[in-house]
What we know:
Layout: H1 19-76, E1 87-89, H2 91-95, E2 105-113, E3 120-131, E4 134-145, H3 149-155
Antiparallel strand pairs: 1-2, 2-3, 3-4
Amino acid sequence: MNGRTCSRMPVRRTEGFTLVEALASLTIAAALLVGIMGYFTTAYVGIRQDGTRSQAVSQSERAIEATRAWLMDQYAQGKLDTSAQSKQVQPGDLASNGFAASPNMNTTVTYGYAQSGPPGWEITVTTTWQSRGQLQTYQITSFFGKYDHAKSRASQ
């Protein structure tokens, strides 16, 4: 044989992946996806809570507007007094002025005559709801009454 030796060496493929490499990469990808899914779950819960809070704010603002309309009717009929105690507006009174509460939220409206400042009534709306087992609250206060802009500017 011409001085050459023939040795049989195994031929190794240099293209593609082996089964072990493919399984290893799939395991790493699965671990990363599980970690990323936690962030999506957290984001979804946050978005849902923000949506519920926005609904509570909207409902409270609608209750303020309905209460102002109801107070205007009561004022026109001479039924509002200037006693210092707070009074609660009944849901039926607000329903007649276009207010409808969401079934999963509780909205309470109170009003009382302001003891200082311009004459009028302070309206307080409190909306509560359950979120993740905890009671959440949103409260807004408004004013209904006469406000003399000329006197306000003169006092400044």
